[in-house]
Amino acid sequence: MHLKKEVTLKELAGFINADISDEPDHIVNDISEPESADERSVVYLSNKKFIEKVNNSKAKAVLTSDKIASGSLTDKILLVSKDLEDSFNKLLEFFEYKEKFSPCISDKTSIASGTAVSKDCRVEDFVAIKDGTSIEKNTIIHSFVYIGKNVKIGKNCTIHSNVSIYDGTVIGNNVIIHCNTVIGSDGFGYLQKEGRNIKVPQIGNVVIEDNVEIGSNTSIDRATIGSTVIRKGVKIDNLVQIAHNVTIGENSIIASQTGVSGSSTVGKNCILAGQVGVADHAHIEDNVIVGAKTGVPSRVVRSEEKMIFGTPGRTILKAKRIEAIAGKLPEFYQEFNELKKLVKDKLK
Amino acid sequence: MHLKKEVTLKELAGFINADISDEPDHIVNDISEPESADERSVVYLSNKKFIEKVNNSKAKAVLTSDKIASGSLTDKILLVSKDLEDSFNKLLEFFEYKEKFSPCISDKTSIASGTAVSKDCRVEDFVAIKDGTSIEKNTIIHSFVYIGKNVKIGKNCTIHSNVSIYDGTVIGNNVIIHCNTVIGSDGFGYLQKEGRNIKVPQIGNVVIEDNVEIGSNTSIDRATIGSTVIRKGVKIDNLVQIAHNVTIGENSIIASQTGVSGSSTVGKNCILAGQVGVADHAHIEDNVIVGAKTGVPSRVVRSEEKMIFGTPGRTILKAKRIEAIAGKLPEFYQEFNELKKLVKDKLK
Amino acid sequence: MHLKKEVTLKELAGFINADISDEPDHIVNDISEPESADERSVVYLSNKKFIEKVNNSKAKAVLTSDKIASGSLTDKILLVSKDLEDSFNKLLEFFEYKEKFSPCISDKTSIASGTAVSKDCRVEDFVAIKDGTSIEKNTIIHSFVYIGKNVKIGKNCTIHSNVSIYDGTVIGNNVIIHCNTVIGSDGFGYLQKEGRNIKVPQIGNVVIEDNVEIGSNTSIDRATIGSTVIRKGVKIDNLVQIAHNVTIGENSIIASQTGVSGSSTVGKNCILAGQVGVADHAHIEDNVIVGAKTGVPSRVVRSEEKMIFGTPGRTILKAKRIEAIAGKLPEFYQEFNELKKLVKDKLK
Q1: C104 in helix, strand or coil?
Q2: Smallest Cβ distance to A347: which of B205, B226, B342?
Q3: How far is C172 from chain A (nearest CA, A)?
Q4: Which residues 6+ apart lie within 8 Å of B304 measured at CB?
Q5: Which of A120, A248, B188, B293 suits a disulfide with A237, CB 3.0-4.6 Å?
Q6: Whole-angstrom distance, CA of residue B116 vs CA of residue B132
Q7: Number of helices (H) and strands (E), helices first, in chain A?
Q8: Three-class SS of residue C212?
Q9: Do B197 and A97 touch (CB under 8 A)?
Q10: What are the pLDDT digits (tens) for B30-69?
Q11: Nearest residue in C to B237, CA atom
């Protein structure tokens, strides 16, 4: 949520690290989209194609870059930044409504006796915490969160409502888990025997390191043995599936509806776009980008491949070449048939 | 759920707007599938290929159309409708069990003091409602629903169990949200800086207009600034992802496991089938149908394209032509090799 | 979760049905991955490619087969099994931590008066159970589980936290449902009339037979009329969509993020891999395997097709042939152009 608050452009420019073209004493009170802005709004212009929209907006102040702004914004006060994305982020921060943290452990909860929940946490009504679990200071647990046995949760975490965390999960510091996400459900393993599916016990756990953020309605399964590991700084979107014994490397980003199958690994600083499927026992090395909807087979994807795409995932250059010709298959087939006719006619 | 209730065919025919072929005083008490019907059941026949199944059924009464029924149903009493789907809908409504609404706000809840929950709502046990939130009359909130701060919910809504609604969400009238769905989780935005992912504050909200229905386990993210908007009459299935700043136009339908990426728009009266992926900043105009599993790239999809299909999504005619030839690639390649051999043999 | 417990190899070998190569009195206390093992660990070796990793491990005891072990493991005590997967499963069972079941119905729940919950169940704090519902003995209901009206749940079931079960659902014995899964949400059916979407009442239910396990964040919709049926022994992974009126046959396995559309049927002993989409009114016969990401159209898939793959799903042999040539399309097109040039040059 955001909060309207009055500030002079001069003061704001200092906060977001931008130069003002004019009127440092103009007062603004919000950040808006061009369509809904009024003269007290700041709007953000990151692409020349939106210049007209911004010119037509009632906003007087525009955050943009030198390059984008040059000569084409009329009657606007410019906040010009050399690092536009960074200034935009600071602008959002400025108007973001952040609730003051106040520790409080509700007494309308179900907290087992053998737990170690720091009194400097905020635990809302209707939370269940089982035996042997510890939670460090400044962590917020929202309502309807279930935390199993022997779970460790670090400090400064936010666990949103209706999240379920199974026994034995380990969560570091500064971790955010959005609503209705499940951490530690059983890995999907069955032994097929005489036409029946015998459950393979899943006796490992999930380890989530510091500064990880996980979206809503995502599932991360526990390991069969050992740990499913989400390394430092990883960001995972909504409706993502991380199967048993997977490791996601530091600072990697996994977009919505992507699934990573059992025992696969994703390296550091990778990006998996939306609806990607990674087969089991695949190994994606550091810095690889996987395009949307790609199917990654059970192979090693080398860092040198840089960006892969398609099903089965191939380097982007190759995949795009294939896609281009696939898109012209009807014409190709017709050309072929013409050639064939020509040959048959001439060579008969 | 449904309810058995006795009714003469004459009375039922009036309710569902159909003509009776015979025996207006025959009493039925349920709607059934042909296999499980007894002589008091009504069965529904919408396609000639199920005629045998219906003939073999114990049901005496059959709802169908003139065209389907003509001469081929034996020993059945026909309820013949000129608008078969509509009559079927009314038949379902007739036997549907609808609980009588009785307002009641449980005292086993966690409702902050600064809220405005109409006393004509039903709020079940174990509901959490935060400060500044208002809920209008005749709305039902089931157990384990979490409603954040400054949320507005209209009248006649049903919010099923374990739904999570973040701060600042606005919901209209007659909205149904199924279990475990999440409204307003943070948009997935990070600024990559020196190898780290800096969170972009998500200070917008989600707006859901009147008459929207949203399935279970679906995620709709809040906007970065402004609103993610679900317009009037939109119907969204289970496990769907709607990213930040998306707008879904009036009366559009989005099937299960589809994902719409950030800042994309879907027009009015569109249909997105299952497992579709829409890239970010794509714009789908009104009345477009997107086939199952289609990948829609970041482009404008014009209404004139009518139906698109495949990855990347192309007009259905083109996509189907490509698919047809792709399916014959081995034969095509063999034909080519034969021609090549012929040419080489003859021209050497 | 697992539990360290000391046992001699002799005793353990008896439990897991393996032969010991040496040192029957060596004491072990855990099962570990090679990297984290110490000399009291047992490690599992199921594939020759991990021999070096196991040799480098601190573990002294290795569970493996005769064929894998032959001559290549150095300084290890071998537990040699003729049925390696089965022995591994027993080994996991040996170290699995299983909580002793103790019946207890919390009084911090919301259980309607007209229910029949066996006193031999365990119902945790913050559970809601509505009127007319029955639950048999030895079943565990975790916190924040919502169970609607007239639901039947058998014995020895485990319903994990934040699961939502709608009115009229029928669940057999020995069923496990993981966190945040939804059973019985409305089928996705609308009647399009004058540009509006009229809800089709969904008056059927969901029936889940014995020995079914369902992962987390999965949605199974109720039938329009009749039942959506999950037959005995079916195993369903996380984030799966099962639409209205679907039947999944005995012992079939459905992997993560797969969706089965309305009125489709899946036979016995089928395997649907991850991210598969099955169109509506498709019928997959017994024993069919559907490869990952496959799109199954609205047709009958015969048992004789054995394994299908691709979009649209074709027999694996055909699909792989097509894929192979599709992967060489740029080369194919170039070859074609060379031939064309040759022909044009020579035949002019």
Answers
A1: strand
A2: B342
A3: 17
A4: none
A5: B188
A6: 7
A7: 6, 41
A8: coil
A9: no
A10: 999 999 999 999 999 999 989 999 999 999 999 999 888 8
A11: C188
Catalytic residues of A: 244
**Nearest by CB: C180 against B32, B180, B253:** B180
Query: Is residue B132 within 8 Å of residue B153, measured between CB atoms?
Result: no
Find the mean pLDDT for residues B258-280: 98
Per-residue exposure over B144-160, b if at least 16 CB sit within 10 Å of its own CB, e if not? bbbbbbbbbbbbbbbbb
Whether the CA torsion A336, A340, A341, A346 is positive or negative: it is positive
Per-window interface: B 51-80 vs A, CB < 8 A: none
Residues of chain B found within 8 Å of residue C204, distances taken between Cβ atoms: 2
Is residue A99 pLDDT above 90, yes or no?
A: no
SS3 content of chain A, % helix, strand, coil (to 5): 20, 30, 50
Is the domain spanning B104-321 CATH 2.160.10.10? The answer is yes
* The CA-based dihedral angle spanning residues A3, A8, A10, A11, taken in that order and rounded to the nearest 10 degrees: -50
Q: Rounded CA gap, C102 and A284, in Å?
A: 45
Residue A103: pLDDT band with limits 50, 70, 90: very high
The structure tokens listed for A208 are 């989530």
d(CA B86, CA B14): 13
CATH match for A7-95 among 3.90.1150.10, 3.40.190.10, 3.30.460.10, 3.40.1390.10: 3.40.1390.10
Report yes or no: A98 at the C interface, CB cutoff 8 Å: no
Which among A60, A66, A28 is positioned nearest to A46, based on CA atoms? Answer: A66
Tell me the DSSP string of A268-288. Answer: TT-EE-TT-EE-TT-EE-TT-
Cis peptide before A312 (omega within 30 of 0): yes
- Cβ separation A335–C340 shorter than 8 A: yes
Q: Taking CB atoms and an 8 Å cutoff, what residues of chain B touch A271? A: none
C2 and A190 within 8 Å at the Cβ level: the answer is no
B181, B203, B257 ranked by CB distance to A257: nearest? B257
B330 to chain C, any CB pair closer than 8 A? The answer is: yes
Domain C104-320, CATH 2.160.10.10 — does that match?
yes
| Cβ <8 Å between C2 and A225 | yes
Cβ distance B146 to A179 less than 8 Å, yes or no, reads yes
The Cα B64–Cα C29 span in angstroms is: 69
Within a 10 A sphere around the Cβ of A35, how many other Cβ atoms? 11
Tell me what the pLDDT averaged over chain C comes to: 96
Q: Among residues 241-270 of chain C, which lie with CB inside 8 Å of chain B?
A: 241, 243, 257, 259, 261
CB contact B282 to A (< 8 Å):
no
Q: What is the pLDDT of residues A191-234, one digit of tens each?
A: 998 889 999 999 999 999 999 999 999 999 999 999 999 999 99
Query: Which among B142, B178, B244, B283 is annotated as catalytic?
Result: B244
CB pairs under 8 A between B and C: 177
Q: Please give the model's pTM, rounded to 2 decimal places.
A: 0.97
Q: What is the pLDDT of residues C214-262, one digit of tens each?
A: 999 999 999 999 999 999 999 999 999 999 999 999 999 999 999 999 9
What is the pLDDT averaged over residues C61-90? Answer: 91
Please give the mean pLDDT across all residues of chain A. Answer: 96
Query: CATH 2.160.10.10 residue ranges in chain B?
Result: 104-321
| Contact between chains at A160 and B162 (C-beta distance less than 8 A) | no
Which residues of chain A are within 8 Å of residue B150 when distances are taken between CB atoms?
A: 1
pLDDT value at position A348? Answer: 67
What CA–CA distance (Å, rounded) separates B234 from B249? 7
Distances in Å between the Cα of B150 and the Cα atoms of A197, B58, B201 are: 49, 56, 18
Neighbour count for residue B212 (Cβ, 10 Å): 25
Chain A hits for C269, CB-CB cut-off 8 Å, are 195
Give chain A's largest Cα–Cα span. 94
CB distance from C150 to chain A under 8 Å?
A: no
